[in-house]
Design brief:
The chain is α/β, with parallel strands linked by helices. The protein is built from ten helices and 15 strands. α7 links the parallel β10 and β11. The structure holds adenosine monophosphate and magnesium ion (MG).
């Protein structure tokens, strides 16, 4: 892992690494984020691997400006008003993703919405501006551990798991971004750096509040997840008639998560393959996936897809 200084040179190196699909931790005004090219499936899979996260929750896409954001989501009047008031800053908006957006399905966890933010930290702004596209960046800590507010926190836990960190000193501690959902009427999905009152003042009307705040602090539990329409059969060692076959390893199938049994590759392909097989109708059968590393998150997602629903 490279420890980069917060200089033109260090920032340029960080940008270069992001362009190559590598993982770079950088400061935002909330906490240090673990950034990767949001359009690169494998880079995003590596974020989940590096964090040791046992499930795939959707990530926030970070941009240097509003114009970049609008290329990926359907913009609304409320979005315009909130962005005008609070960007750059600690506010995340959840909007409908454009059909043609090349954002990785792993960033949205297969949903048709995308969380977007324009951060204010000068280092983040510089790197995002030079990169020129969307950077997905959850907090740069191991899953279940405390969010890092200094570069040393990142290096202590993640040195052998990521490619670089920019050391730009401590961030203004503990304030996560406020998340507002704008896909329907405005909903406060997570309280954070911008207060509810400030948001209400800008929207000119009340905002619904996601009730179960505890559940919100456990990402992935509270948002409705993509589930295929098709029934899903797990640990399939043979195929039955009429099934769409999602393989892993050297098996004959319709789509393979990874012929060479690479779990990063399998995670990178998971949502795309599920969507493609789902559109064929019928049932999806899936090969067994090893239950270690990223396989734990893949199996979590698959067992949710296979769970009985109403
Ligand atoms: P963090 O990166 O730690 O600030 O966490 C990101 C938060 O944004 C998580 O709680 C996610 O569940 C939430 N989030 C990201 N994308 C979406 C989305 N499309 N819809 C709802 N919540 C989202
Ligand atoms: Mg976190």
């Amino acid at each position: 892992m490279e420890l980069l200084s917060d200089t033109d040179e260090g920032r340029a190196c960080a940008t270069d690494l992001l362009c190559k699909g590598r993982l770079v931790a950088f400061p935002t005004e909330t906490v240090y984020g673990l950034g990767a090219d949001a359009c690169d499936d494998r880079a995003i899979a590596r974020i989940f691997e590096a964090k040791g996260r046992p499930s795939f929750n959707p990530l926030i896409a970070h941009f240097s400006d509003v114009e970049g954001v609008k290329r990926h989501v359907h913009w609304t009047d409320d979005a315009e008003a909130l962005a005008h008031a609070f960007w750059p800053g600690p506010l995340t908006l959840v909007l409908r993703k454009r059909e043609n957006s090349p954002i990785s399905r792993l960033v949205t966890a297969g949903l048709d919405t995308l969380a977007v933010r324009v951060p204010a930290h000068p280092t983040a702004k510089a790197v995002l501006g030079a990169f020129g596209g969307a950077v997905a960046a959850p907090s740069a800590n191991l899953s279940g551990q405390i969010s890092p507010t200094r570069a040393a926190h990142v290096t202590e836990a993640m040195a052998d798991r990521i490619d670089a960190v920019i050391d730009a000193g401590p961030c203004s501690v503990g304030v996560e971004s406020t998340i507002v959902g704008l896909t329907d009427r405005p909903v406060l999905l997570r309280p954070g750096g911008v207060s509810e009152d400030e948001i209400v003042a800008v929207l000119g009307g009340p905002i619904a509040i996601r009730k179960n705040v505890e559940a919100i602090s456990a990402p992935g539990q509270m948002i409705s997840h993509y589930a295929p329409d098709a029934a899903v059969r797990l640990n399939a060692v043979d195929w039955q008639d009429g099934e769409a076959r999602l393989g892993f390893g050297p098996v004959e199938c319709d789509l393979n998560l990874s012929e060479r049994e690479d779990l990063v590759e399998a995670a990178a392909r998971l949502f795309d393959h599920l969507h493609r097989l789902d559109s064929e109708g019928g049932r999806i059968a899936v090969s067994p996936i090893p239950h270690h590393g990223l396989g734990v998150a893949i199996n979590d997602r698959l067992s949710r897809a296979a769970a009985p629903r109403d």
